[in-house]
Design a protein that fits this description.
- By secondary structure, this protein is an alpha+beta fold.
- Helix content is 50%, strand content 14%.
- It contains 32 helices and 21 strands.
- The strands form two sheets. Strands 1, 2, 3, 4, 5, 6, 7, 8, 9, 10, 11 and 12 form a twelve-stranded mixed sheet that branches. Strands 17-18-16-19-15-14-20-13-21 form a nine-stranded mixed sheet, sandwiched between helices.
- The two termini are 39 Å apart.
């Protein structure tokens, strides 16, 4: 200007945001959601690992988790006053406080439950005549004087034990107390006295002054040494006969420790330091294991001995608890990594697709700027600035929401993840946009997918990815995830498989279009031909939407199949443990069920069928069969091996001198057991082979079974391989007879053992059932009431209650929540990818409809045109997603073991491998959603375009 002043110009960023506020808000929302998911994932993993570690420590027995420092009594060479001072409360408290402070991080003590004192390590035989002697063996008692009794107990009767005068090693009378359980079991009352022999002089007399009750019976104060709380009846190891005696603990007054120095009970000093798990986090597990190892036999032990004495030792089972937790974590991590990489890849592709959509909408604008002399650096800088203004606050807000939603976890992995999302969008959008304008271009010819030919670079890239995918799948199938540790290449195998499938489908996509376009061109109507022509007219970058869809659908299918596999494994384990929907049995293996009980329970409301079983454990295998060379071989078909006995069922597996093995014999009613097997999904039972006819006909009431009677039996494959087809004589509690194998089944209800025989119970001498299996949904309270009505105690087990045992440790529950989120996020990103791909070509569709309406196209025809145009791509994505998800699961299932997620940590559960299987709903629902959304968007576009006039859509200068 002539006056030297520059003309005012509006700021670029403000102008752009005002021009397209909807696009800016949509981008910010997408980045917000993606940043939230990215930041929440590492915090969620930290949270469930932290909860799992704390849960394992808190739920463990206090005797295992407590850190105990102990040392023998002071040496006899020391002066008496010095020995007594070492076991008095002030000195014990001083040492205990120093030990608490010396614990290295992250190990911390729960100071509210710390206990120190003096205890006897050699039980004393109590000869008082009023004490109980179950098998004429007198009880053996221990004595302890520990701090904190009044804090951790309440007085039930009598008075607290005190020390009216200073107790020394020469004292011959002290006071003590016992718990309610000890008093009830050992007939102790207030005022009772006990005597401990001393090395010199009169015995030490202990007077019971009170009875106490624990405030927290499960706390470490009372559970670190369970005998302090509850006495125990144990067998006498020195007796040749089965004799039991009582053992328990008497709590002396807090300052009565010096009196134990004169006894022959080998007193020892101890400091019990229960761990405080409230401050531990999941990542602390490795450091905690290292610290415990150092305290047990390393530099940490030297520091402990410098405080407590040179003879001090540190005892704890906390290291084993931490190691078990680490094994669980290492087993789960690779499976979780598969979901994380899958969803991360889908999110990255969707963000890039969003950048492509924005670039396509602004292509004409930036081409104009480039043609007027705009530099790539200047254009890229402006795009980076306007993108950062929207994206960076959204990423920060997503991080904040993740921190608030998942309250426990490290912040820096979440911050890195959220920053990665923001950086990807800030870099990808300007970079993709500017690369399209390296050289100014005029409006070019259309890019038709049917005629496009892949370049050599693309071919090389596809072959490279194919090699990586094949290598990852091969590694996963060979090594699996059960070995622990996370391998990114192995965990990324589903992503690579989906990537290859997407590239292959994009290459194959033109073939059906070309074949379908020819017959359509001969038809009179224009809708079919136009829809195929429009479906083929697509950008050469059409692989990106398809890649996002296949990745999302494959990840959702994988996650859904994992969840379904976990549920199926738990259902199967519960069925194996119970045998049916409900089970009634005696407390002992040989306890039988009365006929009245069987009838009463069978007639209960909700019971569909009942199958009585007579189960006899410990049946000796015939010597001729047990000694065969195939005793440990496979089954009849070479697939089943002899796994020995199941300890929980008494299934046999012990070998005597003659090589005989113990098996289980199950007597069944063929008809009712066949119905049970059919209902519960057990293998088909050939009941016709057990007909009680001929020599196996039922015996008259009271008749004895002759050994020459031949009974047909159905055996497990392992037992059938040993017995063969020959006849063998067996001796059982149900009668003596000869058996001959006539068939095999892999499993039998209510038994986990693989060594069993099934016989018709009607052919047995003793037929009374020991177990009753029920199907249906009986009321648990009524079932237990009916079982207890006979005056005897019977055990009632429910499949639903057994199933509930597997749900859930915090680590398993956290991993399942992550997989549920992966399924939901995968489905959401798949639908978003469909929406973005349709929005990218929305202006062209609206212009096409406007032009065709000027040529006489009706509104209904316009809707059909857009629907038919979207159908090929939607069907390609849905079908490709179904196939990719199914193929990924089939390829990777041999390397995936779901036991750590499904059954680990439950005592007595079946730990056989749980393989991954394809879940139909996880495959079909996301794919159907893709097709439905594509049709819905096409219909909405056609409806919206019909509401606007053709003049509005056909203005000069609009995109063509």
């Amino acid at each position: 200007m002539s006056d030297g002043k520059r003309a005012a110009s509006a700021p670029w960023i403000r102008t752009r945001l005002r021009t397209a506020p909807g696009a800016a808000v949509a981008l910010a929302v997408l980045v917000l959601v993606t940043a939230f998911l990215a930041a929440a994932f590492p915090r969620a993993v930290d949270a469930y690992e932290t909860e799992g570690l704390r849960h394992d420590i808190r739920r463990a027995d206090a005797g295992r988790s407590t850190v105990e420092v102990a040392r023998p009594q002071p040496g006899l060479e020391l002066p008496r006053e010095q020995r007594e001072a070492a076991v008095r409360t002030p000195e014990l408290t001083r040492v205990g406080g120093a030990l608490v402070k010396a614990l290295p991080a992250p190990l911390r003590a729960d100071t509210s439950s710390v206990a120190y004192g003096v205890r006897t390590t050699k039980p004393v035989v109590a000869t008082e005549p009023w004490l109980p002697r179950p098998d004429t063996v007198p009880p053996q008692l221990s004595y302890t004087a520990q701090t904190g009794l009044k804090k951790h107990a309440r007085l039930v009767s009598g008075a607290w034990p005190t020390t009216p005068a200073e107790v020394t090693s020469a004292s011959r009378a002290v006071r003590g107390t016992v718990t309610e359980e000890t008093a009830a079991a050992l007939n102790m009352k207030v005022g009772a006295t006990l005597e401990l022999p001393t090395a010199v002089g009169d015995p030490l007399k202990v007077t019971i002054t009170g009875i106490v009750a624990p405030r927290d019976p499960r706390g470490s104060y009372w559970s670190a040494d369970p005998l302090v709380r509850t006495p125990s009846l144990i067998p006498d190891p020195t007796s040749r006969f089965p004799q039991n005696y009582w053992t328990g603990t008497v709590l002396l007054a807090e300052d009565a420790g010096p009196a134990l120095l004169s006894t022959a009970t080998e007193p020892a000093l101890f400091w019990r330091l229960p761990p405080d798990a409230s401050a531990l986090t999941g990542p602390d597990g490795a450091r905690l294991a290292s610290v415990i190892a150092s305290l047990e036999s390393g530099p940490g032990l030297l520091e402990v001995r410098a405080i407590a004495g040179d003879t001090a030792v540190l005892l704890t089972g906390l290291g084993h608890i931490v190691e078990a937790n680490a094994r669980m974590r290492d087993a789960i991590s690779p499976v979780i990594a598969v979901a994380a990489l899958g969803i991360g890849s889908v999110a990255a592709v969707v963000l890039v697709m969003t950048g492509a959509l924005i670039a396509a909408r602004r292509r004409a604008e930036l081409a104009l700027m480039r043609s007027r002399g705009g530099s790539l650096r200047g254009i890229g800088g402006r795009l980076l600035a306007e993108t950062s203004v929207t994206v960076l606050p959204a990423s920060a807000l997503g991080l904040l929401l993740a921190v608030l939603a998942v309250g426990e976890g490290r912040w820096w992995p979440a911050a890195l993840a959220a920053a990665g999302v923001g950086l990807l969008v800030c870099v990808a959008l300007p970079l993709r946009t500017t690369l399209q304008h390296i050289r100014p271009t005029l409006h070019g010819a259309r890019e038709d997918m049917v005629s496009a030919r892949p370049s050599r670079r693309r071919t090389v890239a596809e072959l490279t990815l194919l090699v990586l995918a094949v290598g990852a799948v091969a590694a996963l199938r060979r090594r699996g995830t059960s070995g622990g540790g996370t391998d990114l290449l192995v965990s990324g195998a589903p992503v690579l498989v989906a990537l290859i499938a997407a590239l292959v489908l994009v290459r194959l996509y033109p073939l059906p279009l070309r074949l379908a376009a020819r017959p359509m061109a001969r038809l009179r109507g224009a809708i079919g031909f136009l829809s195929l022509a429009r479906a083929g007219r697509s950008s050469a970058g059409g692989a990106l939407p398809l890649l996002a869809l296949l990745l999302a659908l494959a990840t959702a299918a994988f996650g859904g199949s994992v969840i379904a596999g976990i549920g199926d494994a738990r259902d199967d384990a519960a069925l194996t443990a119970v045998g049916a929907d409900a089970r009634v049995s005696g407390k002992g293996e040989r306890a039988t069920l009365p006929d009245e009980l069987v009838r009463t329970v069978s007639d209960l409301e909700g019971v569909r069928s009942a199958a009585p079983l007579r189960i006899e454990f410990g049946v000796t295998m015939p010597e001729t069969a047990a000694g065969d060379g195939g005793a440990d071989g496979g089954g009849t078909d070479g697939r089943v091996t002899d796994t020995g006995a199941d300890a929980g069922t008494g299934g046999g597996g012990t070998a005597g001198a003659s090589g005989a093995r113990a098996i289980a014999m199950v007597g069944v009613d063929p008809a009712s057991y066949t119905r049970l097997a059919r209902t519960t999904g057990l293998p088909d039972f050939p009941s016709g082979l057990l007909k009680a006819t001929g020599p196996s006909a039922p015996l008259p009431e009271g008749a004895t079974s002759a050994p020459e009677r031949v009974l047909p039996v159905i055996a497990s494959p392992a037992v059938a391989a040993r017995l063969g087809k020959e006849q063998h004589a067996v001796d059982t509690l149900s009668g003596n007879f000869t058996i001959q194998v006539v068939g095999t089944v892999d499993r039998v209800a209510s038994l986990a053992s693989t060594n069993f025989l099934i016989v018709n119970s009607a052919s047995l001498e003793q037929r009374a059932p020991t177990t009753l299996l029920l199907t249906g949904a009986p009321d648990p309270a009524k079932l237990r009431a009916a079982a207890d009505r006979n005056g005897e105690e019977f055990v009632v087990q429910l499949r639903s209650e057994e199933r509930a045992r597997y749900v859930n440790t915090p680590m398993q529950a956290g991993a399942e929540r992550i997989y549920l989120a992966a399924v939901a996020a995968g489905a959401g990103y798949a639908l978003l990818a469909v929406l973005l791909s349709l929005l990218q070509t929305a202006p062209e569709r609206k212009t096409l409809l406007a032009r065709l309406r000027t040529m006489g196209l009706t509104t209904g025809q316009g809707r059909r045109l857009l629907a038919f145009e979207a159908t090929p791509q939607a069907l390609l994505a849905a079908g490709g997603g179904l196939f990719t998800g199914w193929a990924t699961i089939v390829l990777l299932s041999p390397g995936i073991d779901l036991v750590p997620l499904a059954l680990a940590g439950v005592a007595g559960s079946d730990t056989s491998p749980v393989t991954l299987r394809a879940d139909l709903w996880s495959l079909a629902l996301p794919a159907a959603g893709v097709v439905a959304l594509a049709a819905a968007v096409a219909g909405v576009q056609a409806w919206w375009a019909s509401r606007r006039g053709s003049i509005t859509e056909l203005r000069a200068g609009d995109s063509r």
